[in-house]
Structures are given as C-alpha cells and as structure tokens.
Write a structure and sequence with these properties.
Elements: E1 20-23, E2 30-31, E3 34-35, H1 39-46, E4 51-56, H2 63-72, E5 82-84, H3 85-96, E6 102-106, H4 109-117, E7 121-123, E8 132-135, H5 143-152, E9 164-166, E10 172-175, E11 178-181, H6 183-194, E12 199-200, H7 206-216, E13 221-225, H8 228-237, E14 241-245, H9 252-256, E15 266-268, E16 282-284, E17 287-290, E18 293-298, E19 301-306, H10 311-325
Parallel strand pairs: 1-4, 1-13, 4-5, 6-7, 6-8, 8-9, 9-12, 13-14, 14-15
Antiparallel strand pairs: 2-3, 10-11, 16-17, 17-18, 18-19
The structure holds magnesium ion.
Length: about 350
C-alpha cells in the first residue's frame, strides 16, 4: 500500500506553506519566567520562513513588556509583534462605540494603556457616566472596582444599557504560589450581581485572532497553543490550522477526550516537531495508523493494534481513532498506555 509506505521524510511539516505563525505564551514559549525546552530555537527557526506573532489573553502586561520578556529569552520581538487581549477588546469596542468616549476601566496598566492609545478617556467611577465598561485582570482589581462596574451596568443592554467588554474569561491565573482567580472569575462576580453577560475579546473568542490576522496580513496562519478549550477552540472558530504542544496545561488524556471544535490539526510533544514531517493518520479497515503505531475502536474498547515505540505517534493514532469513532470518550475503555505522558510538563 502506497499510503503505508510513506516515509517520515516525505510528509509535509506543520509549517509547510504557512506564512504566519502565531504563538500563545504560557505553556508554549515559557513557564514562569524561564523558556521551555526547545521553544526559543524552534520559533527563531520558524521565523526564517514565516512572520512570527504572539497572542496573549493576559491583560495585565503591555505589549512592550511582553516583547521585552520574550526578547530576554532570546527571541527577536518588537511590541508590535504582540497581540494582547486589551488590544482585541479595543478592536471590539471600536466597532460598537467609536472614540472619543469615556470608558470605565476595571483593570491595570496593560488595559489603561490600550484604552488611552485607542483615543478613549479612562474613568474609574460609574458617576462619570461612562459609555462602556472594559474589564481585564490585574492583581490590584478590588471589590470597589467590581462595584463601580455593577453600578455602570445596572441597565440591561436592551433597555439602553451600556456595552460591557471583557478582555478574556480565563477562570484561573497561575501565580508563583498556586492557582488564583482569573478575569473570568471576576467578570462572573459582576455577572452574578447584575444578570448581564459580557462580550469577550480574548481566546477562545474571535476578536483576538482577527486582530492578529489583520495586523500581520496572514494568508495561511498556524496557531500554536497549549490549551484545547481556549487556544485550539479559538483557532478552529476562525478557521486556522492549530498545533497543540504538550509543554503546558493540556495532557495526552485531554487530547484523547477533546470535543469536536477543540481538536488540533497537529499534536506535538515539543516545538522541534514544527520542523519535522508530520505523519498523516491513515485509516484502513477501521484501524488508524501513524507511522508504526496503530489504534482502533471496537465497540466500547480502544485497542492498541501496533506500537512503534514513539509515544507521540501512538497518541496521534489514538486521537484519530477516538475522534473518528464519534463515541464520547467517557463511555470508552481506553488503555492507559495510550495516554502515557513522557512529555515535558512545566
Ligand atoms: Mg498557554
């Protein structure tokens, strides 16, 4: 069979034909202050053939401070290469309410900076009759800020209530000492108080991707992320190919369980594999082959038919078989071997 004799060296790499590479930061480029193994050299090499851009939901840092951090790790990054969720929020806001206008800001420097650059006036008080509320995470956001947002948003939108834009709705934010409430949790507090829903700019919603695609003039983009529910879902929503790299949050078992809409185009152990031929999963008589690995779903059983000793190929074959089965993963018996996790975890 010609399909099975395809050599690793003849398959295209994930970068084939790609003119713009967009990367998430945490879990893709770095974990905490330090770079992840192979990330910097692999991205620099990708930058030889494609435009490189960075996308972050973090609303607390400015594009310039993100660029400075990435440059300190050995990447060549200007502020204009970084797309932040406050910038996406401003793209969204401009479509609803052109500047100038007075905006109630709940958030820190990263957000205030973008609101000001977009030509709006910043207020912290509902008494200034703001024309919209924009909310993003900053460690200094207090109950008094959430209360001002609630006062400003007291009218429902269909009763002439003002727009409410959240930079992102990540429930949690990783800190040195553990996991803490993220912007989604704070937005949810306001939502619970007033019964309104915010419009969201960051991943997995489209505005942050649209801002990046427009800014970089992308024709064929590839998005690299470490989370299925934000990064990969978002890329799928805007119709661009995606890489899930196993150096961050989501692990092999999450990949196998990924719902339709959150399944990546490519599954990589680390970013070196951006430059390697990517083996297509080939189905034959219900068995999914990736190089020497083969997996099938038979009734409620997921069976490893063959192993090549390369764990990433076994995971790719398992994902292809499970995803194609249309059966929810929780009713399947999945051998643990299929989601072994020898990959780098931050
Ligand atoms: Mg991430």
């Amino acid at each position: 069979m010609a399909l099975f004799s395809r050599k690793r060296s003849t398959a295209p790499s994930p970068l084939d034909g790609v003119d713009t590479v967009l990367a998430d930061l945490d879990g893709v480029v770095y974990a905490g202050p330090g770079a992840l193994p192979f990330a910097v050299e692999s991205l620099n090499r990708a930058g030889e053939s494609a435009r490189l851009g960075y996308i972050t939901n973090n609303a607390a840092r400015t594009d310039a401070s993100v660029a400075e951090h990435l440059s300190s790790l050995g990447l060549d990054v200007a502020a204009s290469d970084v797309v932040t969720s406050p910038q996406a929020a401003m793209r969204l806001l401009a479509g609803i309410l052109p500047a100038p206008a007075t905006i109630l800001v709940v958030g820190g420097d990263g957000l205030v900076d973008e609101v000001t650059k977009a030509g709006y006036t910043v207020t912290r008080s509902a008494e200034d009759s703001p024309a919209a509320v924009v909310q993003g995470f900053a460690p200094e956001v207090a109950w008094t800020d959430l209360a001002e947002a609630a006062f400003a948003l007291k009218l429902p939108e269909d009763e002439a209530g003002i727009p409410w834009i959240a930079t992102n709705t990540d429930w949690t934010i990783p800190r040195d000492r553990g996991v803490a409430p993220g912007n989604g949790t704070l937005v949810s507090a306001v939502h619970t108080a007033i019964g309104r829903l915010a419009t969201v700019a960051g991943k997995p919603e489209a505005p942050i991707f649209e801002e990046a695609l427009a800014r970089f003039g992308a024709r064929k983009a590839l998005f690299i992320g470490d989370r299925l529910d934000t990064d990969i879902m978002g890329a799928n929503r805007v119709g661009i190919d995606s890489v899930l790299v196993l150096t961050g949050i989501d692990r092999p078992k999450h990949v196998l369980a990924a719902p339709e809409g959150s399944r990546p185009t490519y599954i990589l152990g680390d970013l070196r594999e951006l430059h390697e031929p990517y083996p297509e999963a080939v189905e034959k008589d219900g068995v999914f082959h990736v190089n020497g690995a083969a997996v099938r779903v038979a009734g409620a059983d997921v069976e490893i038919v063959a192993e090549s000793g390369v764990q990433i190929d076994l995971l790719r074959a398992g994902a292809a078989a499970i995803w194609a089965s249309g059966t929810p993963v929780f009713v399947l018996r999945v051998p643990e071997r299929l989601y072994d996790d020898p990959f780098h975890r931050p």
